[in-house]
Amino acid sequence: MMSEKTYVFHFQDGDGDNKALLGGKGAGLCKMAQMGLPVPPGFTISTDVCSYFNDNNHFYPKELNNQVNKNLLKLEDEMGAKFGNAKNPLLVSVRSGAAISMPGMMDTVLNLGLNDETIKGFISITGNARFAYDCYRRFVSMYGDVVLDVKAEGKDDIDPFEEILEKKKAEKGVAKDNELQSDDLKELVAEFKKKIKDRLNIDFPEDPMEQLWGAIGAVFGSWDNERANAYRKLNSIPDDMGTAVNIQSMVFGNMGDDCATGVAFTRNPANGENFLYGEYLINAQGEDVVAGTRTPQPINKTQKTRDDQVTLEKAMPESYKELEKIRNILETNYSDMQDMEFTIQKNKLFMLQTRSGKRTAFAALKIAVDMVNEGLIDTKEAILRIEPAQLNQFLRPTFDYIKKQEAIDAGKLLTKGLNAGPGAATGQVVFNAPDAEEWATRVQSVILVRIETSPEDIKGMNAASGILTARGGMTSHAALVARQMGKVCVAGCGALEINYKARQMKVGDTIIKEGDWITLDGTTGEVIAGKIDTQPSQIIRVLIEGSLKPEDSPLYQDYSKLIKWANEHRRLHIHTNADTPQQCLEAIKLGSEGVGLCRTEHMFFEGDRINSVREMILADNIEGKEKALAKLLPMQKEDFKGIFSVMDGKPVTIRTLDPPLHEFLPQNNKDIEIVARELGVSVDTIKTKISFLHETNPMLGHRGCRLGIVFPEITKMQARAIIEAACEIAKEGKKVMPEIMIPLVGDVNELKNQKAVIQNVAKEVMERLDISIDYKIGTMIEVPRCALTADHVAREADFFSFGTNDLTQTVYGISRDDSAKFLEAYIDESIWENDPFEKLDQEGVGFLIKTAVEKGRSIKPDLSIGICGEHGGEPSSVEFCHRIGLNYVSCSAFRIPIAILSAAQANLKD
Amino acid sequence: MMSEKTYVFHFQDGDGDNKALLGGKGAGLCKMAQMGLPVPPGFTISTDVCSYFNDNNHFYPKELNNQVNKNLLKLEDEMGAKFGNAKNPLLVSVRSGAAISMPGMMDTVLNLGLNDETIKGFISITGNARFAYDCYRRFVSMYGDVVLDVKAEGKDDIDPFEEILEKKKAEKGVAKDNELQSDDLKELVAEFKKKIKDRLNIDFPEDPMEQLWGAIGAVFGSWDNERANAYRKLNSIPDDMGTAVNIQSMVFGNMGDDCATGVAFTRNPANGENFLYGEYLINAQGEDVVAGTRTPQPINKTQKTRDDQVTLEKAMPESYKELEKIRNILETNYSDMQDMEFTIQKNKLFMLQTRSGKRTAFAALKIAVDMVNEGLIDTKEAILRIEPAQLNQFLRPTFDYIKKQEAIDAGKLLTKGLNAGPGAATGQVVFNAPDAEEWATRVQSVILVRIETSPEDIKGMNAASGILTARGGMTSHAALVARQMGKVCVAGCGALEINYKARQMKVGDTIIKEGDWITLDGTTGEVIAGKIDTQPSQIIRVLIEGSLKPEDSPLYQDYSKLIKWANEHRRLHIHTNADTPQQCLEAIKLGSEGVGLCRTEHMFFEGDRINSVREMILADNIEGKEKALAKLLPMQKEDFKGIFSVMDGKPVTIRTLDPPLHEFLPQNNKDIEIVARELGVSVDTIKTKISFLHETNPMLGHRGCRLGIVFPEITKMQARAIIEAACEIAKEGKKVMPEIMIPLVGDVNELKNQKAVIQNVAKEVMERLDISIDYKIGTMIEVPRCALTADHVAREADFFSFGTNDLTQTVYGISRDDSAKFLEAYIDESIWENDPFEKLDQEGVGFLIKTAVEKGRSIKPDLSIGICGEHGGEPSSVEFCHRIGLNYVSCSAFRIPIAILSAAQANLKD
Fold first, then answer.
1. Measured between CB atoms, does B829 come within 8 Å of chain A?
2. Are the beta carbons of B727 and B763 closer than 8 angstroms?
3. Residue numbers of A annotated as active site
4. What is the pTM of this model?
């Protein structure tokens, strides 16, 4: 007989390291149980079942029923209670838990096992009818909502159970839920059940086993709900991972004042400080903390901000001490900061969850560096601990603090909330997520203001610069999501009176209307009326502006350690896309080892150069063109001298003219008239030229090397500027390493043609200036044909550089300018997992790049190859470049730290 | 001792089949000499020396001098004369001869060996001082021109030797060269030599060996002259083949009236009739025939057109009989029609050249078929004898070519464009499509002239006899549609200045107004003012119009034999690109075995359907779109029924909607107003939609399957029309084989998405109609990513079809609409050998196609794969498709015969 596949794992048996099988929550519970920590007994149904369930029309594997029953029996044994027993009923929670945390996205059912029979036993065991009925009515409404899908219908409707509850409170003349008496709650149970009957024409299931399977199915089904799908898309979580289901005996934080529930981090998730950090509520269930209906209390004195706050440390010192102990055990075991959920039932602490804690970039950095200092992890592990994209936050602007102080002094401080997502944000107020999305397309910056946020708001949150909520704590939905997105967030601002309908909010006497500017300081929790300018980050101030001393910035010290470690562990070189000496200087300070892409045409727009460019374009004959180019020559040369000087011997890759010439001509009648006057030509001349240069598909038109081939005089001028600049700098005794890059090559003959032009100029210049310098001539690979014939191209090229932006456009046959009309449908329909212009498409574009690398190196084994498209600063793309053996990636200056860290991670993962 | 490499071959020794080594002329002379035909003795210096000479700075291999000397001695022996001997001088000719004939491109020197000493002996041997001095003066001027490069300087100068000659004639009071007396000619020799001295400050070389090496060097050098290079480029002859040099003892056709020289073909090169065909001149040198200074006489009575003509047959019957004998010997030996040069010296016939004769398409066909009948060649050889592209000529209307030449001679040639749609068309000019339709109802024939055409113009194009455009290349809209319709088209005539408003165009100083007659030669690209009569092709009259009986057309009889033989020898299937039942019918008659590409959108323009299409585009909601689509459904269904019916079980590949929606909207204000009125919407509504749909790069925009994904209702309607049509035809008891093709797929998920839409519709339709039919769903591969991920795509696709037009655009990153600005430079600079939109680029695009075929078949070994781009009717591309193992090529109907023949040739060459 074949051994049966195991789908259900008792917490004492499951492999706590196998999150793929047990989900994050399940694995954590197993691990904690097996460490001997106080975990309420239970078991996990594996993620395999979720996949089976969703692939097989919501059927389960045939073995499942039996395995659940066996584990349930064991649980009954452990708890000394019986599921469905009228005297001594076992109550369980049914919770989702995927391998990658998706907070709040999927469903949970608590207090399952209650019915009109078992409630009696539950009352007698707890000796608290009010509590018992409170659990019951919570269970019925939760089950009605989650499993039976009895919800508000449409956005103007309200939750049907909420409606009944509110009516009941009004009827009883009470304001708060906990003022309702046991009989009131009992009535609620009956009214809730009736509502369900009215809506669905079915009776509420009284059989606990039916309840259990209903809840299991709902949790597995919730993997596929709209908000979970949206969340996965946003976070690039594969759709086929599935969730596990955790069935656990209930513990109660809401049995009285010797009970509590809370969430804690082993270190501060906002700034990384090495203290237990968290919040809790006395006499509450976990959902109360997350939902933000009551504002939680700080867990210990390090977090206390007001005198009226009561910490857990003070209120329940024994439980607090045990939590501190558990914190140490978990950090030692996991070597990472943990995010824990706990419940205290009658002064006994239970652990309900542990997982790697989400943290801000600032906290991630500090924790990683601290843990190296503490000996918990090594530098390699520290490198792997930071999401490269997070480094971006260190380079972001913060407030001009003087201006902020002035605003505060001027009475602009509206209120203060929780500093849920650090950073500075200023923008125009909107009151719902769709508006945030829409406004963001047309104004500089928006702040999304909500009473509290929900998973439906995710896209709007993503579009906003900052998020402000009236309710909810540091672990509310708004806070969690904002931190993960790197968004500024101030949460739980109780002073805000938000009126969605009127599209305004009131703070004291101040009214803020939709469209008004406000400013959030996510680091302090301050909410300020009006717009406040921002200023560069500390890292930028230290590295680039020099306005802050390194020793005055602990952040910089941690940051520079991390970058140093990453530099020691990477193989890829990091170059930058920069067009001016100033940009080059900044890039070097951020760690660049060369210029991977200098776009000469960007220089064409500076000052009045554009006039010479236009004169060149408008010239009818070669003499006229050369005359105009002669005016440009000294200017381009000075630019290159500046760049060579700054780069001081590091390679500088300069691309010859790329864009179609019509891009340099004025676009509208007014500008045409101005230019006509300035150049002393007729308006008609310019219009005729514009019409002559018009292209149906400019992206595929007369640009790149196609310009230099038809107008070799342009290439000559640029070659002259580059080589003269290099020679003059070399004469000053400095090193120079110019690399001239020919764009848009599709045939080796194009490269040959331009190479000959450049070599002739170079020879002439070097003879005239009586100096010889080394220079390279290579090609940008940005059309498929160049990649497909890379072996031929390699015979003429000193280097390759993939222009992955255009290469992605041509490989897909998609114009980035025109993709908006179908991009959303493509993501919604799961046709694309990612926008290929953000993350390099490894399957198609990447395969072509790999082919080209192999073909190129088959001819020249040492051929230097890099990429210079936007993907050069995107972590997964950098990893790909490392894996296929490129020499460097080149990206914009502010992405260099990301590229450095990504390159190190790629090498360490190798 | 290593054996020395042989560079020089005596005519009795050289391998007459090795044209690569000996050149065409040298090989022919060797072969004839070795057959015992009367060839003046001589030897050939191989093409190897040419390559050496041009690669080594004009130095020769060291062995050469010795080998030439040895062969010269042997020649002296054979001729009983001595090179440079004052009494009995040997005179030779020095002629070029490459492997592929380049008539008139390279240099020749005759009478070499004459100097002031040898002239005496030459006079005494010939007994004719006038003749001897005539030879001498010809030699000096020819040597001065060819070897010493004494020529007219600039275009206003005249030839310096010609100038002296004319002066001499004037001085002597004579009109013709042959009226000059021996002393006059002697004076000319001296004056020519003085001219050379004046120009170059060198003495004319008197040493015959110096003369010989000078001539050899000049011939080898002439391989690299400007006109030879241009000719090779034009005819795709590789630059590294090189020419041989033939040194041959002189014979003279100009020694008196018992001498003659001529050129003859073994069969008539114009119509293929099996008679000796040629022309000759009494008392003349070969150059006189070619130069056209005297009008040659017909060689025999079959060619005699006037009574005053004297045939060779009559004038020199013995020589003529010998020539007839030689004609038979040569045809038997070569099994092909030969082009011969001969000279008769004092009634003795000498053969100076034989080579395969150039011939018209009509002659090629007749000769090939006749030779099979005569048992000279087999059918395989006959198939290989016809240039596939020539078949086109049989399907096109033809001119009365004498009248056309008269028109050109009368200065009526306006300009030349691309020969985009071959054939002859003459008609009255109109400048827009509606006018073309309207005029066609009341005048004999119209020519539609547009700057460029768009899908809106289709009906007008159909009504016109010919289409002329100012912009666009060989695969522009005009060219593609014209070829599919079998229309004459001249495209991309940059010289036309078209003024729609004034209803006229300007070419140089000529103004052509609406209603004026013009004539297009779509085979040459010539545009001619005025009317030239045309006549329809015999093949079309027999096959398609039925207006000519097969037995009344010998051309048709030969043609149908060739096509039958080709069909027996090909492996590739030939499909057609056709959009209407009528086109399908014509394609079948021309040999099509299926429809490879039916573009559904072409049907959208018929009748008032376009209004429903526009209604669909303008609809704001899905209901409105579906309502408009419902109107289109029955019309599309009828089209498909017609096509299925005609195709009678042959596969029909139907592409779902491809072009961006803006192509269906009106372009200018007037049309917008009309459409607004017709559809009952506001002008603003249409303008807003046009502006919304505007694209920066429409080629890379919202088109292809991207439309069907965003608007699944369109795919649904089309799937419904196809499946319902197929089911209804199947119910009539006919066979149907619909293949639905999804365009522009770049990711397998796109195909999956559209496949699901189609399968759902198909299931519903088949259930409703209670019939089950087979159908396939496949993809067009026209963006590189689809090819690069063809293994993934193959899992979902029933077939692949390469859309090589768009694939070429995306692989090169070139918009064919915009390539005109650099295309010319690319051909001039030899960056491209061919326009990749005409001949499939095998190195880049072809490599990608090959990769995709391998990837696709790695998943589905029997995957059916074809191409449906314009390359499907281009011979070298068809051969490539055969070689990489495709199942079929699909091309427009009129290219089917070309494809059939190319496919057979590819298979025979395999």
1. yes
2. no
3. 477, 868
4. 0.81
